[in-house]
Amino acid sequence: MLELRWLIYSHHEQWEDTCLDITSAIVKMAPDRVTGWIHKAISLRRANGGGFENAKALLLEAAKLFPTEWAIHYNLACYSAQLGQLDAAQEHLNKSYELGDAQKIKLMALDDEDLKPLWQGVT
Description:
mainly alpha
């Protein structure tokens, strides 16, 4: 139910209070649900005072809890690329290929503006 609320409020870009509160509750109540961590990072990224650094820090913590989750590394690649940390971004993108469906992830990456600095290396 909370994830559905997050989807609705994120669609309306209500990041600061609503989305961040919802995802904080999800992570607290169900820390074993990877989507809660990813959605919280997305909310942090877009919230005033949040940003890429905070979102990345949260997902680095989540990567320890979910070492086989490709989506965490994909999002870490996005945040690293936007922070100008291109070597780290490429490493996380490569890790997402290893853990997930590499072909689908490459197609996603080529359509993701956050990863534009890496587009030449995506084959």
